[in-house]
Amino acid sequence: ALGTIDELNSHVGVARARMCVRDAHDNVVPVAERELREIQSRLLDLGALVATPPPSSSSSSSASEEKRARVHFDAAHVSTLETCIDRWDATLSPLRNFILPSGGFGAAELHVARSACRRAERVVVTVCREEGVPEIVQRFLYRLSDYLFVV
After folding, report:
1. I want to staple 4 with a disulfide (CB 3.0 to 4.6 A). Which of 86, 100, 120, 149 is the partner?
2. Is 111 within 8 Å of 18 (Cβ atoms)?
């Protein structure tokens, strides 16, 4: 799961670097720069949470709980993504057919990032079930794939 989340973060970084448009004065202006940078930070946090084992009866409970507390992932991060999705979605026409992955280098890289995100979702389902990773990881990745599609 860690490698998949790391790969996703790399794709988001490439998309972030390529998501630019030219303004009326022919200046290059980044699109979604702050949002994508924030997402990259949250993906690092998610990786830390996945890498931190839950407290078990065989380990020092207070030490394990302390480690898990340091990597707490707030549900507000999911709400923030949902707000961004709603804002971007409000600028779009309703979909009437499937979307081909294209639209310039930045948009195409967002499609690749979304594919990596969907793979991470599938991997994380098992990790959550078998290794006690909190369900918030799944929820964030699920909403992130929606965000990457809408942007």
Report:
1. 120
2. no
Taking a C-beta distance cutoff of 8 angstroms, is the pair 15, 110 a contact?
A: yes
Report the mean per-residue pLDDT for the chain.
87
Which of 120, 111, 106 minimizes the C-alpha distance to 42?
120
Single-letter code of the amino acid located at 76: A
**Eight-state DSSP code of residue 91:** T
Q: Is the separation of the CB atoms in 73 and 137 below 8 Å?
A: yes
Residue 23, pLDDT > 90, answer: no
CA distances to 14, 21, 51, 72 from 32, in Å = 13, 11, 28, 26
Give the residue from 109, 139, 108, 133 showing the smallest Cα distance to 121: 139
Work out the widest C-alpha separation in the chain, in whole angstroms. Answer: 64
pTM for the whole structure: 0.85
Q: How many angstroms from the chain centroid is the CA of residue 133? A: 16
